[in-house]
Amino acid sequence: MSNDVNSIEWDAPIVPGLSMAAIPLHAAYDDLDAVIAAYLIDADARLYRFEGGPDLHLERYGPDEHGNGGLLFSLPGGDRAGDMAALSITIGGGVVRALKVYALGMPCDVVARKSYRGLAAGSIGLGSLVSDFLVFTELHFDEAEEWFCSGGDYGVLEISGWGVPLEDEPEQVVTAICVVA
Length: 181
What we know:
Elements lengths: L18 E2 L2 E2 L4 H9 L2 E3 L4 E3 L5 E7 L7 E6 L10 E8 L2 E8 L36 E4 L4 E4 L6 E4 L15 E5 L1
Antiparallel strand pairs: 1-2, 3-4, 4-5, 5-6, 6-7, 7-8, 8-12, 9-10, 10-11, 11-12
């Protein structure tokens, strides 16, 4: 897979260890920044709208002199969701190191429809059952971080549910997904 960023898409597939939102891991920050600029809809409010997505407010963190920083896109405060994080991009050494999307609102809530709609294999995404991933990969629960990590050949993926092991809450839903380099 190429590390070139050509677009940002709110319904692009989730490819563990490779990409999400059509943003490849290891993409150069400068290239990503140039693509992000094309989605600017209100410079004063720092609002962006990606292909198929809602209006999102951007907060930039860095990058510092080592090329480390991040971008946080959230629903603007005027929305019922009020500044809910929707997409975060971690930059390390001048390249994309992680991409994380968050479920917005509660399932069946109007705000939830603004959540990222891209899916991983098996049509699994935000709002799906965490256990649905078990068909494709083993999941290891990290008690300190309170998330699940994929294993085996599936690719690196971190999945947030309700912060407890599946044995305790087998019906927990996916509340965040992170693709990691």
